[in-house]
Structure formats: structure tokens, C-alpha cells
């Protein structure tokens, strides 16, 4: 998943006392690797929330990790009770927390600022400006893969949930992505020329067989087969300037997209019946279709314009979950048989002290 890092959450300060310490702001949002929870990095630490049911998850001690330098977190990712965080005061460092033992269990020092972190139960991926490092999470965390990339200020990198990990990152050239199939320390690579301009966003299906990419310079999302780099589908949306996140449904029938134009879209994918498995296990590739193009989304949900939002498909059938840098969580349902606006099932303001709020404020009540 892409990691928001430029927009700030609600931080209005104290107009009656401008010298007072301002409230914390959101620096980073990420859904966890397996789905079902998300992490929030703030200027004052981080928080974890389950999504279904929606609830705050107590994790580390509340005073993390002051050390006289503040507890801001610029990147955070969680997987099966393990949390990796990048502290603002030491951006070249990754700290690892394990809920099962209730303590910090490791740390990594990188050569430069860590732009993002990806985490699986078996490995951790550190993304720097022009390098990606993959470490084994067992033992002393040995280095498994060291990958050079082109400039990557957004920290773009995705990994699959499949037993044999598939990793996608930027290639060395503009518009190029690298697909890396990793198994037992070995790997094979494939370069895909995805776009003529820079890549803005990437996503993988759960089993790593499908890759979605978006461009920074045109309103196109493309779907490729990772096995041979074949272009399978091209989708578009008029007037979109920036893509914030892409996500496949578990059965790879749908692609969710969040954009700067104040909307989250769900597109139908022309992958054919039973061609993609619903779990992360390795299966036969099946028959994938010839190239297919579409410009219209199946379903839409309105959010504030120019506000970064992340989207994933929920565990409930035909639902999406959305988190925004404005501190709001939405669960929405779409009708797979009829196009149109999604129905909001619930909304919570997770950046309030009580982590509650079942309805939207009027300025966000689009539906």
C-alpha cells in the first residue's frame, strides 16, 4: 500500500493560548498486511485499530518513546501482532515491537531515511530513497535481498500475502516497476514498463499474480500479470490528478482506487471466472483474458477533495474500508449488480480521545 506523509491531520492549536502545546497531528496511515486493522503514526506516537468491529487496540506503553526527543512516528506497519515503526527523531531507524512478549524485540539501522516499511510474518522490508532491503524476521534479522531502485520519495513497495513472496518496487528507469519472486533466499526478477511517466501507486493481488499501477501524469490504472508482465486491463478516470491508493479484492474481481478528486471508486476487473484464487495459496494461473479497457467505475463514495485516503476491501462481502488523514474511518457497501453511490454502513472519528463518532459532521455528509 502507498503511505501518506505530506498531509496533516486535525491540528488547530489553541487560539486562546498560542504558546500552548498543539494537539498531535497524523503523519502516516497504513492498513495491516493481512487486513482487519490499521495503524496511525502521529506527532505523539502511534495507534492501532481493528476495523470489524471497529475498536482501539492497546499496544505499546503510552509514553513511547520519549527519550527527551518526542514520540513522533513517520511510518508504521503491523502484521500479526508485530509492529514496525520509524521514529521521527531517528528516520534511519526501524524499531520492532512484538505484542506476544510485550516488548521491543529488535531494531534496524539503515544508511538513510526510511520512506516506508512493509511487514510480513516472515520478513520486514525497509524502503529508502533509492534502495530496498529485505530482512528475515527470525533470529538476528539477516539481510535477504538488497535492491537498487530509481528515486522513490513516496516509498512505493508492495508485497504479496502468498507463501512464496512477490515483491514489487520501482525499477531504475522512469515508469518502470520490478517484480521480484522470492523463495528461500533466492529470487527471479522481471521488469515491466508500466507507464511513460513516473509511477504514482502500486498494488498486488493477495496471491501476487496481478499487479496494478497508476501514473503521475495521466489518469490511467493498469493491471498486469506478474508472471510474464502482460498488460491485462486499462482503466481510467477523467480529471484525476493524483492516485492515493490501489487495492485488489481478495478474489481479484474488483479494484478499489482513492483519488484527489474527493472520491473512492470500485472498478470491475475482467479476470474471468475462477482465474484467481481467493486465498494466498499457489494455484494454477488459469486462463487470463486478452487486453480489456474500461473508463467507468462500478461504485463511488465521496470523501473530502485533496485529502489523502487509503482504501482496502473489507472482510464483509462487497464492502470497502477507508481511512483518511482527517482522522475518519468509513465502512461502505457497494452493489455488484448495479453501478452508483456506495452506502455508508458506519463512520468513526479515530482521532478523537474517545475513538468514536457514528455519524459524519455536516461538511462531510455527501450522501
From TrEMBL:
Q: How does it sit in the membrane?
A: Peripheral membrane protein
| Main subcellular location of this protein, as a coarse class | membrane
- InterPro entries, per database record: PROPPIN (IPR048720), WD40/YVTN_repeat-like_dom_sf (IPR015943), WD40_repeat_dom_sf (IPR036322), WD40_rpt (IPR001680)
Give any Gene Ontology cellular component. phagophore assembly site membrane
Which keywords does the record carry? Repeat, WD repeat
State the compartments where it is located: Preautophagosomal structure membrane
Can the keyword Repeat be found in this entry's annotation? Answer: yes
Instruction: Map out region (Disordered) in residue numbers.
Output: 1-25
Q: What family is reported?
A: Belongs to the WD repeat PROPPIN family.
This chain's protein is named Autophagy-related protein 18a
This chain's source organism reads Sesamum angolense
Amino acid at each position: 500500500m502507498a503511505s501518506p506523509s505530506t498531509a496533516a491531520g486535525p491540528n488547530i492549536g489553541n487560539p486562546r493560548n498560542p504558546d500552548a502545546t498543539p494537539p498531535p497531528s497524523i503523519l502516516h496511515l497504513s492498513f495491516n498486511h493481512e487486513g482487519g486493522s490499521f495503524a496511525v503514526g502521529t506527532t505523539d506516537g502511534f495507534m492501532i485499530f481493528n476495523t470489524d468491529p471497529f475498536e482501539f487496540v492497546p499496544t505499546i506503553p503510552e509514553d513511547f518513546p520519549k527519550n527527551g526527543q518526542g514520540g513522533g512516528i513517520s511510518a508504521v506497519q503491523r502484521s500479526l501482532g508485530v509492529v514496525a515503526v520509524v521514529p521521527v527523531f531517528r528516520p534511519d531507524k526501524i524499531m520492532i515491537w512484538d505484542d506476544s512478549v510485550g516488548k521491543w524485540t529488535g531494531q534496524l539501522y539503515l544508511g538513510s531515511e526510511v520512506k516506508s516499511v512493509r511487514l510480513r510474518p516472515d520478513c520486514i522490508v525497509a524502503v529508502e530513497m533509492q534502495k530496498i532491503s529485505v530482512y528475515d524476521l527470525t533470529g538476528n534479522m539477516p539481510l535477504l535481498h538488497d535492491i537498487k531502485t530509481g528515486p522513490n520519495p513516496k516509498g512505493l513497495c508492495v508485497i504479496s500475502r502468498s507463501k512464496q513472496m512477490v515483491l514489487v518496487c520501482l525499477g531504475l528507469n522512469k515508469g518502470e516497476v520490478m517484480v521480484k519472486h522470492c523463495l528461500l533466499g533466492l529470487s527471479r526478477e522481471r521488469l515491466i514498463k508500466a507507464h511513460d511517466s513516473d509511477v504514482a501507486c502500486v498494488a498486488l493481488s493477495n496471491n501476487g499474480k496481478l499487479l496494478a499501477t497508476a501514473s503521475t501524469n495521466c489518469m490511467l490504472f493498469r493491471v498486469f500479470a506478474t508472471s510474464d508482465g502482460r498488460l491485462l486491463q486499462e482503466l481510467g478516470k477523467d480529471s484525476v490528478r493524483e492516485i492515493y491508493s490501489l487495492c485488489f479484492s481478495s478474489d481479484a474481481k474488483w479494484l478499489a482506487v482513492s483519488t484527489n478528486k474527493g472520491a473512492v471508486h470500485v472498478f470491475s476487473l475482467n479476470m474471468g471466472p475462477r482465474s484467481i484464487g481467493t486465498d494466498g495459496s499457489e494455484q494454477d494461473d488459469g486462463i487470463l483474458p486478452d487486453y480489456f479497457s474500461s473508463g467507468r467505475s462500478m461504485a463511488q463514495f465521496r470523501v473530502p477533495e485533496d485529502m489523502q485516503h487509503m482504501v482496502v476491501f473489507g472482510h464483509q462481502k462487497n464492502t470497502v474500508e477507508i481511512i483518511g488523514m482527517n482522522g475518519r474511518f468509513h465502512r461502505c457497501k457497494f452493489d455488484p449488480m448495479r453501478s452508483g453511490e456506495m452506502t455508508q454502513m458506519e463512520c468513526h472519528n479515530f482521532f478523537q480521545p474517545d475513538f468514536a463518532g457514528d455519524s459524519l459532521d455536516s461538511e462531510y455528509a455527501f450522501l
